[in-house]
């Protein structure tokens, strides 16, 4: 399953916070998560993350481990080639 996380950091970014996030990302990739892309953004969110996880439970666990540092909205992403949200044409 693919997920998109829209992230806002709770505190001003520092080298320590970035290092902690990189440590979490490394731990995630040794488990069940594969990062497709991580992007800094301008505008409403600080960062957008596209990742793959086997299920929603794994994606939620990731969010909870970072709840002290960031607010995130996680969306399930369905590849467009899997079909239209409107159903068959």
Classify the fold: give the CATH topology.
Answer: Alpha-Beta Plaits
Strand-pairing-aware structural class: alpha+beta
Helix content: 25-40%
**Largest pleated sheet:** 4 strands, antiparallel
- Shape, principal axes of CA atoms: globular
Mean pLDDT: 90
Sheet with the most strands: spatial strand order: 2-3-1-4
How much strand content do the residues show? 25-35%
Annotation field: number of helices: 2
Low-confidence stretches: none
Q: Oligomeric form of this entry?
A: single chain
**Overall number of domains:** 1
CATH architecture: 2-Layer Sandwich
Distance N to C terminus: 24 Å
Gyration radius over CA: 14 Å
Keywords:
alpha+beta
What's the topology here?
Elements: E1 2-9, H1 15-29, E2 34-40, E3 47-52, H2 56-65, E4 70-77
Antiparallel strand pairs: 1-3, 1-4, 2-3
Structure characterization notes:
With 89 residues, this protein is of the alpha+beta class. It has a single domain (2-79), classed as Alpha-Beta Plaits (2-Layer Sandwich). The chain contains 2 helices and 4 strands; from the N terminus they run βαββαβ. It has a 4-stranded antiparallel beta sheet, with helices on one face. It is globular, with a radius of gyration of 14 Å. The protein starts with a strand and ends in a 12-residue tail after the last strand.
């Amino acid at each position: 399953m693919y997920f998109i996380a829209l992230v806002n950091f709770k505190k001003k970014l520092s080298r320590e916070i970035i290092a902690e996030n990189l440590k979490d990302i490394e731990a995630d990739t040794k488990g069940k998560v594969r990062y497709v892309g991580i992007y800094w953004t301008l505008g409403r969110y600080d960062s957008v993350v596209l990742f793959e996880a086997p299920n929603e439970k794994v994606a939620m666990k990731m969010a909870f481990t970072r709840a002290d540092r960031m607010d995130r909205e996680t969306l399930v992403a369905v590849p467009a080639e899997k079909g239209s949200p409107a159903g068959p044409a």
